[in-house]
Amino acid sequence: MARPAHFPAWLPLLVVLLAAGGATAQTCLTATFTGGRTFLKCNALPVLGASLHWTYHAENGTADIAFRATSGSNGWVAWGINPTGTRMGGSNVFVASQDASGAVSVITTILEGTSPNLGNVSLSFAVPVPASAEYSAGAYTIYATVALPSNSSSQNTVWQAGPSSGGAILPHPTQGQNVLAMQNLDFLSGTGSAASNSRLHRRNLHGVLNAVGWGILIPLGAMIARYLRVFEGADPAWFYVHIACQISGYALGVGGWGLGLKLGSESAGLTYQPHRNIGIAIFALATLQVFALFLRPDPKNKYRVYWNVYHHSIGYSVIVLAIVNIFKGLNILKPATGWKTGYIVIIAILGGVALVLEAITWAIVLRRRKRNHSYGNGTNGNGLQL
Prior knowledge:
With 386 residues, the chain is an alpha+beta fold. The protein has six helices and twelve strands.
């Protein structure tokens, strides 16, 4: 723990982040362009190593723009405006790429959906100065003059980058930074607000709720039920703690699951099918567990053994599916490495504790059986099976 006489442990990280942000802004402000072009404003865009430079002409509602984004020579970049929404669908874009001979060209197209036909078509707004593009020092630059739709300085802008092969433009990745490349920009004031910030926050919240609910509390509750009930002094407290963990985990998990469905409905054409299907299976099985509580037979009922088999099978299935799906979600979100490492550490700790308790509780059970044959028959001395 940091002491008053020392710098806080997080201070070096903060300095690095601030320096990185400052370096990006400095690159934006000091960028130079061929042909003596200059621009009055610039924004270092939040993802894909891109920046936008422009001069806004309020008298006629046009803007001279230069969009620059890093890319390999075998890639493509695009920038555009969406006059009708905040997502990629419906956007009017400029796409720069190289053909097989290395010649750089730029086309204009309208993205009709998630798998658009990239034909060279006229945009829905005027382009007084036809677009051009160049590739230098590992980056494309697109130049154009556009008449801003509805003569409004505030526009929903989009940008993108992806691979190409032999001059053919290939689909861009549908995860990570590529799904966050949207921003509302005011060309007059120069202020931009990432349209993706709210969505990114909800995606992160979806992941945290599911990881804590399905991936931590539910396994913890199962461990409490399996191991603490062996200790005579823990009865009936273990049962109430078990129920508290399971209900809390279920509530958080259902919240995360519902948020995931909402995010999916907002991403038409972009579905992480395995992650989605496993999530639905987890919700269905966990809900069955909740309803099973109302049908739980008395411990002495002859059907109790069948209920136990059902309860344990469904519970362990939910835990296994949840852990698998959490890692699938982490691969989709691609957060900082620490998140994935942190969850691995938590699961490893829970697993290690479970192994130790497994050995301890079996030792207790075997000792009781040896001491008192009346509690044999596969029970642990409390009439409860491990």
